[in-house]
Design brief:
binds calcium ion; 3 domains; 22 helices; two-stranded antiparallel ribbon; Rossmann fold; Topoisomerase, domain 3; single chain; alpha/beta; binds magnesium ion; 10 strands; Recoverin, domain 1; 534 residues
Length: 534
């Protein structure tokens, strides 16, 4: 008897072993969160149940913008290839949602077929009806970029008069569905035609809960001059401030994401740096996907808990016999107070509650007497998941990331160019110059540096800090910069510079004067060959 008990005890306490973070998330969802969701009709109110493809899917990037802001062109820029069904032009050309996904075979799958494919994550989109499905497709092609992530192109949002055309489906609802599931949302704006239509504003509002996924691209920035660009940038931030909760956290990338010549060339350098940052951000998505899925599941579990409290509170107030209808009306009217009570009783922040107006609207269609009372076991399972299981999965992430670092980096397309050619930012320039050359790059102007060095009266082949300083200030660089250069150049830290170190100091001054950044630590290829073994 005793043995049996302890055996049972062990089985209950021993944590489950998961093959991967994603495997763990799937199993936790099914065993702990899904039962709570189902019991309180979470799926009718907030989001359909999650399926294996939701967890297994490649990371997704969602592009949103008014028409002609360059969404489709942006995708083509990344892939360096057209995709099946691509249409680009000044008028609204993309009239549909297009999931650009990897496949050996090129082709187009229409929306109606897409939502019955059990291997894909789009099944729940059925609920948006035929008007939507006719405007939804998957463009498949064999391209290395989308082998690591899928990209969702969306219909251009119209402005002004043209916007009155009814789409015939819940456009904002579809965007929200995607926003919940994607890893990154890129909002595109056109620097030379910045206007934010009502529909676009509604679109931004639909994705508001996913602020942390949003990045902003101010595209076509080469079409305006520097002064106009600064003005547009200010106007954009001001407009976003009115729509997004926290516009200051959304990173704005300024650039020109297509393959045409720059109209105003003066910002080339800025565009390159911005592109590099944006590419880094996109490249890291596959690596961060497990963490993103984990975060989304936590968010979902918290909403499911609040939802359970709301539904059970409503049920508790319902009379068993008469006056159900009038009670229901009363409860819906007082939903705000019910939120307040739950907030206080369970210490839940107001931000975790579902939108009040929408909840009221949805409740109209439900029979409250069919709701369930609170069932502590279901909530305890979710609490246990949040406080124990999730923490264990979290610990698995760094290891998994490390193991998959190379495999999961986005490669090919535009990413290849910028990594492997001299036109990629930072390649062969500044501190990076000479990285792959056998010759020490500092030798290039060695004769000039040596000439000055000899004039500074070296003793035992070295010059003093004072002598070096007197010469270095002629660069007109500020003292803090020169101080940093001194520290980098005095490789052996003896407080003096030999001719190699002096040449290095001059090389670093040149790098700075050319407008590049200094390194925090001297990269190996810049260390004088004589000192590389130190
Ligand atoms: Mg388009
Ligand atoms: Ca030295």
């Amino acid at each position: 008897m005793k043995r049996w008990l302890s055996g049972d005890d062990r089985r209950r306490r021993e944590p489950e072993v998961y093959d991967s973070v994603v495997d763990g998330l799937k199993r936790l969802y099914r065993s702990k969160l899904h039962p709570l969701e189902e019991f309180y009709k979470f799926h009718d109110f907030h989001s359909p149940p999650l399926d294996d493809p939701d967890f297994d899917a490649k990371p997704m990037v969602l592009l949103i913008g008014q028409y002609s802001t360059g969404k489709t062109t942006f995708i083509r820029y990344l892939l360096e290839q057209d995709f099946p069904g691509i249409r680009i032009g000044p008028e609204p050309t993309t009239d549909r949602f297009i999931a650009v996904m990897y496949s050996e075979q090129e082709g187009v799958i229409p929306g109606n077929a897409l939502v019955v494919d059990t291997k894909k994550q789009f099944r729940p989109l059925t609920k948006f009806g035929n008007a939507f499905l006719n405007r939804f497709q998957c463009s498949q092609l064999n391209n290395p970029v989308i082998n690591s992530l899928s990209i969702i192109d969306t219909p251009g949002i119209l402005s002004g008069e043209k916007q009155r055309v009814d789409r015939g489906y819940d456009f904002a609802g579809v965007l929200e569905w995607f926003a919940e599931r994607v890893d990154r949302i890129i909002l595109l704006f056109d620097a030379h035609k910045l206007d934010i239509s009502d529909e676009f504003r509604r679109a931004i509002e639909a994705i508001k809960g996913y602020d942390d996924k949003i990045r902003i691209v101010l595209n076509k920035a080469d079409m305006v001059d520097h002064q106009q660009l600064m003005r547009v940038y200010g106007a954009l931030m001001w407009s976003l401030g009115k729509v997004l909760n926290t516009p200051e956290v959304a990173r704005v990338y300024i650039g020109s994401f297509w393959d045409q010549p720059l109209q105003y060339d003066m910002n080339r350098r800025l565009f390159e740096l911005e592109e590099q940052d944006l590419f880094h951000d996109i490249q890291a998505l596959p690596r961060n996907a497990a963490l993103r899925k984990l975060n989304d599941l936590i968010k979902r579990a918290r909403l499911a808990k609040v939802h359970a409290y709301i539904i059970s509170a409503l049920k508790k107030e319902m009379p068993s016999m008469f006056g159900k209808d009038s009670k229901k009306k009363e409860l819906i009217n007082n939903l705000n107070d019910i939120y307040g009570t739950i907030q206080r009783d369970h210490q839940i922040s107001p931000g975790d509650f579902p939108n009040l107006a929408r909840m009221k609207e949805q409740l109209q269609h439900h029979d409250f007497s069919k709701f369930h009372q609170i069932k502590p076991k279901l909530l305890e399972a979710v609490d246990d998941m949040l406080s124990n299981d999730i923490a264990r999965l979290m610990q698995m992430i760094p290891k998994e990331e490390e193991a998959q670092f190379e495999e999961k980096r986005v490669k090919g397309g535009a990413f290849e160019n910028y990594e492997e050619s001299p036109f990629g930012i930072g390649r062969g320039e500044g501190v990076d110059k000479g990285r792959d050359e056998a010759e020490w790059v500092v030798n290039e102007l060695r004769y000039e540096y040596d000439e000055v060095f000899d004039k500074l009266n070296p003793t035992d082949g070295k010059i003093t800090g004072a002598a070096a300083k007197a010469e270095m200030v002629r660069s007109k660089l500020p003292n803090n910069v020169l101080g940093k250069i001194w520290k980098l150049a005095d490789v052996d830290r003896d407080g003096m510079l030999d001719s190699d170190e002096w040449a290095l100091a001059n090389h670093l001054i040149k790098i700075k004067l050319d407008g590049h950044e200094l390194p925090a630590i001297l990269p190996k290829h810049l260390i004088p060959p004589s000192k590389r073994d130190l």
